[in-house]
Write a structure and sequence with these properties.
- The chain has 287 residues and is α/β, with parallel strands linked by helices.
- It folds into 2 domains: 172 residues, NAD(P)-binding Rossmann-like Domain (Rossmann fold, 3-Layer(aba) Sandwich); 105 residues, Orthogonal Bundle (6-phosphogluconate dehydrogenase C-terminal fold), CATH 1.10.3660.10.
- The protein contains 11 helices and 8 strands.
- The longest helix is centred in the C-terminal third of the chain and has 27 residues.
- The model has no long low-confidence stretch (mean pLDDT 94).
Amino acid sequence: MNKPLINKLAIIGVGLMGGSLAMILKEKGEVGEVIGIGRGVENLQRAQELGIIDRYTQSLKEGLADADVVVVAIPVASIVNVIERGQQYMKDGAIITDVGSVKGDIVKDVDMILDGRLSFIGGHPIAGTEKSGADAAFAELYNGSRCILTPSLFSDENALETIKKMWELTDARVVVMDVEAHDKILAAISHLPHIVAYALVNTVDGIKDFNESILKYSAGGFRDFTRIASSSPEMWRDICLMNKTALLDLIDAYVSELGNMRTMINEDDGQGLMENFERSKNARDSI
């Protein structure tokens, strides 16, 4: 029997992202033991029932001992703090990675506090749903997606290769990128769309011209477009604040584009609207 890529994997935060990663690694026989670490006992118990993890604990000391790879899959604002608290319990040569949607502040801050015995590789698999918790996990989540790794100048090459292989086992396409480029790209393709979805739902829900909420009349288009507004408010609050600079620039650009459309509608500029919509359709169809 071939030796698995990871003998002992610890996952801090066994939800959609961390749980799905554990499932596919187990399915492919590339992990020996998976330890789940978290605050919610019910979720950890459920993860064990589903076979996502082999055992669980609420203790960083117990869960991180002897782990070869530690995946931190919690809200981005908590990642650095958990790494700082937990690193003392990790063995020499252990590799830490994360799945956070913002990388700049995380990589910079981890570089400042990381014990020299350990390696950190920033990671962000671009996949997900609006669901959360162990019940949301499924082995095919990362199939065909992209996973961006953002090593720093201090990252160990062997550690980078291990984390790269780990994500390739999920059938994701792995891309190595600097943190600034990552945060600008994700602000555009992920963070802004979530802001738009939250704003749209609040706008429609705030229409008081009727004696009832008109959201009940929403059909497939509205529901599909705003699905991501069902995502974790805590998680998206943290992402917005940590990627503030890039996101504010894009919000300004989006407001400007809406303003252009408003002007064309106000001026009955059908030709302008047609050209605008055609350009958008062609761009969307090319994805």
